[in-house]
Amino acid sequence: MKHEAYIRGIGYYAPEKVLTNADLEKIVETSDEWITTRTGIKERHIAAPGEAVSDMSAAAAKAALVDAGMDADELTHIFLYTVTPDFYTPSAACLMEEKLGIRHKVVQDVNAACTGYIYGLEMARAVLALHPEAKVLVAAAEVLTSRTNWADRRTCVLFGDAAAAAVVTSEESGAQARIMDTRLSSDGSLGHLLTIKGGGSGHPYKLGDAVDEDFFLQMNGPEVFKHAVRSMAAICEELMTAQGLGNDDIVLFIPHQANWRIMEAVAKKLSLPVDKVMSTVARFGNTSASTVGIALVEARTAGRLPAGGKVLLGAFGGGFTWGSALLQF
Predict the structure, then answer these.
(1) pTM above the 0.85 mark?
(2) Choice among 21, 45, 77, 114 that is catalytic
(3) Structural domains present in the chain
(4) In contact, 284 and 40? CB cutoff 8 Å
């Protein structure tokens, strides 16, 4: 028997500190005009000293739980998608669970890079297929500025810190949206194009070693751009075809908020007008796994999720991973 999956509550958290393009002009050789024309980004949020992924994901989770009208202890599963966990161990999900004041849940960290939120929706659907009574929290959070090389003008202008969360259950009553379908994919042969290597088992440090550039995010921007557009558009088309939908059936497209040029190019490939594209990139920059979840909340606040409307999500990230999801509100 198939059990449907419904989003019951959504929320996000962004740190208080904001770093503008004007601020970056004082740090690295760049300009507001250069950043804006190439990325669409005007500002990004920066975690406070000592503010970790578990702190931000707990804050986003609390917002989603309030939105869902639920207590944290009702949750049965917590999946936290991140490439910047607090530590190797304990997992950020375990620390997040403790910060929510609960115990004895199924918790784990998962790394799907910028596609994390959509991978999380699929994970929630899978859990509910086995355990329809489950209450699943999907969280996506990053402190990417902890792995940003502020001397690299090509990458340091792109990233910010934030967290998003969604509560997913099999109960239609009180739900905000039905997860109609998801599609996921990956290609590890291209992983070298976007990396954070330093400190991992493949690039370990010894006591006393200096941190080098491999500790920070490194990216072949033109190649990532090309693959992001091609892969995100293709998997969104695959999902729409599987559901028998055309462009007119989509009321809103929420892509990964990496770069306005990528978002615009994907919309063009999908023959979707730009006025159907939800964009928060100017205010938040690229917050990796959490961007789609943040944009979903912002879309609701802006009144862009009409009852019965079908909303298409798309994302692409390091690994490479990519995916799409279709929601009906």
Answers:
(1) yes
(2) 114
(3) 6-174 (3.40.47.10), 179-328 (3.40.47.10)
(4) no
